[in-house]
Specification:
The protein is globular and about 55 Å long. The N and C termini lie far apart (36 Å). A seven-stranded parallel β-sheet has the order 3-2-1-4-5-6-7, with helices on both faces. Helix 3 runs parallel beside helix 4 and helix 4 packs parallel to helix 5. The protein has a single domain, classed as Rossmann fold, CATH 3.40.50.720. It is α/β, with parallel strands linked by helices. The protein is 45% helix and 15% strand. Bound molecules: nicotinamide-adenine-dinucleotide.
Length: 261
């Protein structure tokens, strides 16, 4: 029988207070892992942690801004000092600006790249320092459907998410000799705090309303449904498991088929 059992495995998950991060945390927890949950809004993890603990999951939280390299190093080294290793790093922290290109500022680029791309790099490098000598590890980066195609309303975000794909491949090549798998997931539409403002901006740009835009976005999805945070969590669990032992440098679309349209 095929099963995934992360008992004895330590996961570090960033952006754990967000919509998708919470779903990923629940699925890693359901697979038996010990969770180190990080977010720069630690209070956003309170309810999640309560529920995970009630379900018997071993959880530690970390207030962490992924743009702060020293803080990232401190959290990563602290986990290894306390628990001996990080088996799985899942980079989910992210931010966005929804606006047309001619309104997108250099500050938008700086802010978004600092979190989505450079912050991810900081977490990966700090963790790889421990995974490389251990000769084992799994890294899962949350990219986006916007990693595959540019668009007219998330310019800096899409650029950062294209960068995530490149970073994923480069780190996969770097770490392959050390038995470390590095992959990405490209979620489609997940109804999180990040997604609703996107619909509002699209509605404004198209002289429309949020519900019309929601229906339009869904009409592009062959399965005609949104993705859940757990859908993304399931993909993260799979890519972190031995079932995916020969998969590296890849990006898995979890988008109901959106990328085909
Ligand atoms: N919602 C979607 O439809 C969708 C689609 C594709 C990809 N994604 C990606 O999924 C990931 C999670 O997004 P979400 O939809 O859950 O959004 P969200 O806004 O609910 O969650 C993002 C989380 O990242 C945290 N965060 C932001 N900046 C941080 C920083 N500097 N340091 C630490 N934590 C920080 C936030 O506090 C928040 O909890 C993001 O990388 C996003 O780009 C989302």
């Amino acid at each position: 029988m095929i099963s995934i059992d992360f008992s004895g495995k330590n996961v570090l998950l960033t952006g754990a207070g967000g919509g998708i991060g919470q779903g990923i945390a629940r699925q890693y927890g359901a697979a038996g892992a010990k969770l180190h949950l990080a977010d720069f809004r630690p209070e956003a993890m309170d309810d999640l942690v309560k529920k995970l603990k009630a379900a018997g999951v071993d959880v530690v939280t970390h207030a962490l801004d992924v743009t702060d390299e020293a803080a990232v190093g401190k959290v990563v080294d602290g986990i290894v000092a306390a628990d001996g290793k990080i088996d799985i790093l899942c980079n989910c922290a992210g931010t966005i600006a929804n606006k047309p290109y001619m309104e997108t500022t250099s500050d938008d680029f700086d802010r978004i790249l600092a979190v989505n791309l450079v912050g991810m790099h900081k977490c990966i490098q700090a963790t790889l320092k421990h995974m490389i000598p251990a000769g084992a590890g799994k890294i899962v980066n949350i990219a986006s459907a916007s990693s595959r195609k540019g668009n007219t309303f998330q310019i800096a975000y899409s650029a950062s998410k294209f960068g995530v794909m490149s970073l994923t491949q480069s780190v996969a090549l770097t770490a392959a000799a050390n038995n470390i798998n590095v992959n990405a997931i490209c979620p489609g539409f997940v109804q999180s705090a990040m997604y609703v403002p996107t619909l509002e901006v699209l509605a404004k740009m198209n002289n429309s309303d949020v519900e019309t835009m929601r229906a339009f976005m869904l009409s592009r999805v062959p399965f005609n449904r949104d993705q859940t945070p757990e859908d993304i969590g399931n993909a993260a669990v799979f890519l972190s498991s031995d079932l995916a032992v020969n998969i590296t440098g890849q990006a898995l679309n979890v988008d109901g088929g959106l990328n085909m349209n």
